[in-house]
Amino acid sequence: MKRPALTILASIVLLAGCSGGGGGTATTAAPPASPTTSAPASRTVAPSTSAPSTPSPSPTPAPTATETDQPDDATFSTAAQSDPTFPGGGGDLLPVGVRVGVHAGYERVVFDFEGSGTPGWRVQYVDTAIGDPSGLEIDVDGDATLEVVATGVRIPEESEYDRVLTGTVDAEGLDEVEEIVTNSIFEGHLQAFIGVDDQRPFRVFTLTNPSRLVIDLQTG
Asked: Does residue 9 or residue 116 have the better pLDDT?
């Protein structure tokens, strides 16, 4: 299985706990190899300049997580979706993990954030996964690819590099979702890709305490 050429530091947190931000177990993925082309270090978290010297253990997805809340107006569709404030401005959020779960009628991907506020977001199917800011194509498993852009994200401090979300996780135990690839933090936004078996209808919303960005993919 191929891994993306352009990714950052990894911190994968498995989906377990309820919508009120209940505790769960966390695992962290090893950082991938440095890309040959990257954004300036002052604007982008780049593995070539900020990767920790000690690799982390491989993730173990937990598809039996119980986080099931969603707003009443969140509907499934294959069309591009974004929140009303997108792209918005800067923020105080730091992406620290991604989790997956299986539920009746859908599979869930949750991006976890530390800091105040909630992320702005845009999620859409793309023909090709193109990394920002490099413009290089990224390999993502699956026959269809969802691009996820979360805004309101800040550049981490040097002491926070080992907690920043980056890299790839195989979504073992899920039928539709193949893998999640995190590309970069650049100009106040996080870019990631979700590889799926085909273009399934999806819905997107945020949860708070702690701040989370949720993408559900319809099954069945």
From this structure: 116
Q: Residue 132 domain-assigned? A: yes
Dist CA 59 CA 154 (whole Å): 25
The rounded distance, in Å, linking the Cα atoms of 39 and 173 is 34
Provide the domain count of the chain: 1
pLDDT at residue 70, as a whole number: 65
Distance, in Å, from the CA atom of 13 to the CA atom of 220, rounded to the nearest integer, reads 26
pLDDT of residue 161: 83
Q: How far is CA 213 from the centre of its chain?
A: 8
Rounded Cα gap, residues 136 and 128, in angstroms: 10
> Is position 11 within any domain?
no
Query: Would you say the pTM of this structure is higher than 0.85?
Result: no
Rounded Cα gap, residues 86 and 151, in angstroms: 8
Query: For residue 38, what is the enclosing H or E element?
Result: none
Position with higher pLDDT, 145 vs 8: 145
Is 203 domain-assigned? Answer: yes
Give the Cβ contact number of residue 128 at 10 Å: 9
- Can you give the CATH number for the domain in which 181 is found? 2.60.40.3500
Domain that holds residue 139: 27-32+58-69+76-218
> pLDDT tens, 176-197?
999 999 998 888 899 999 999 9
Residue 44 in any domain: the answer is no
